[in-house]
Amino acid sequence: MSEHYDFVVLGGGHNGLLTTAYLAKAGFRVCCLEANDEFGGGTRSGEVCAPGYISDLGGMIHSMIARTPIVREDELGLIEKYGLEYVSTKSLFCSIFPDNTALVMDPDMDKACENIAQFSEKDAETYRKFNKYMSEMMSVAHVGAQAPPPPYGTMMNVMYQSPEGREFQRVLNSSAQQIVEEWFESEEVRVTFTRWCTEMMIDPREIGTASLLYFTSNIHNPDLYCINGKVNHEYPGAPFPKGGSKSFIDALCCCCKDEGADLFLNAEASALYVENGEAKRVRILDGRIFEADQGVVSCINIKQVYAMLGDAAPEDEARAVARLKHADFGALNQSFALKKIPEFKAGPEVLEAFCIEAAPYEKEYLQTFSNYPLGEFSPRLPLITIPSLLDETRCPEGHSVVNIYQYAPYRLWGDPQNWVTHKEELERQVWDFFKGMTTNITDDDVVGHWSLTPLEYEQWDHAMVCGDIGQIGLQPSQMYDMRPFAGKGHEYHGAIDNLYFLGCCSHPGAGIAASARAGVQKLLEDYGVDFREVVKKK
């Protein structure tokens, strides 16, 4: 016996749930199939370290989605109707160097320049010009962020018509390291900016990484940080949900259900059936069949979908999918429930930043990224977040929840199975390095601990093939209209017309960026529905 829906959505991460919510809001009968026993995908949180201590298990920073109408205008009612609440740090990121000096990117321009002047007065003067420069790039970089991107050739031609567009083309074909070397003399300043760009999970010397430098302009632009239409001038840093990312997911689930959608857990798709060139039904592992009368929408890894299609997959597309690259490295993610709040040798001001990033000096820093493809590991680049500083719901008063996110190769010393035997040893190295950055943390302060290696990420969420938290890499050849198929990214589907790809594998890509929102607009257009009218409904 099978169940009939207009649309069957694969994957219950935030993109799958957003897709489900918008389609249901548009009047379609929709179901969402999630393989795991909870929704959220890479945007989950829970009491994994110890009871009463809430940790984020994947995505933490909501800076990107906070710029979308989902948050800025609360177009799904997640804030007003379903109780989602955001808090925010003062600044987005800072770097701590081996000598325990720190560069905090303060939202106040004068203060940011004062901080930069510690390392170079010339760079402090340059930074004002650089910020203006990247703000101009920003206006171009956001093409297609909240709407389907234009065809790549068209986009390049349009860009070429303005000086800003031509310069962005150059930036798009440059590395982050190349651009910062053009502007700054201090290695501490250069490392700070390229360190942020490594969130693409790509070596900062690779072509295309420079495009993330435009985010630096956001630091001093509070208008970009709106909550339900209100500018958040007080804390323009890094917004994140009170109670953990699960609060965001819970609000989305409530929205989906209120709009009439059906949500299924432990419903891993095992087969996708195509008839007459159309995706018609999905079978899950327990044998249940879900008929898709209008279409199937994938928010899981496109490689998983083409594996399910088998011989039904168009041959040229199957080859293209097989060639898709993953990120250059993954992550060893640890969370600690602690009896006290860390105090850093670098000073209390680093606690104003959401991302506290350890940064070796440039030579060691760049060599570390060269070593990742060789399977080498270093504990010296942890990204530290302490959301409990601003969110009292995360842990008991006076205690803290600390996430330590360390880049790491999937194929550790050439084989991902090495993570099985060396996990504890490498976790300890990262923990010891973190303790060395503080003045007050000892082993006795640990209440509980949780972790995931790159290998375990793949097991934790099957969409994270090869431990790639973004499903597929963010290389320039896999961005804009070339994601996931070159020249067809703006259509959000391949040769199978009613099989859509709206998650991380589509533009604008990974992160808590609400990628699906842009794709839903194209999908609804294909079915004669005006997205603008859908979001007007309250």
From TrEMBL:
Cleaved signal peptide residues: none
InterPro entries xrefs: Amino_oxidase, FAD/NAD-bd_sf
Residue ranges of domain Amine oxidase in the record: 16-519
One Pfam match: Amino_oxidase
SUPFAM superfamilies: FAD/NAD(P)-binding domain
Domain of life: Bacteria
GO molecular function, one term: oxidoreductase activity
Subunit structure: Interacts with COX5B; this interaction may contribute to localize PYROXD2 to the inner face of the inner mitochondrial membrane.
PANTHER family in the record: PHYTOENE DEHYDROGENASE, PYRIDINE NUCLEOTIDE-DISULFIDE OXIDOREDUCTASE DOMAIN-CONTAINING PROTEIN 2
Its job: Probable oxidoreductase that may play a role as regulator of mitochondrial function.
Protein's UniProt name: Pyridine nucleotide-disulfide oxidoreductase domain-containing protein 2
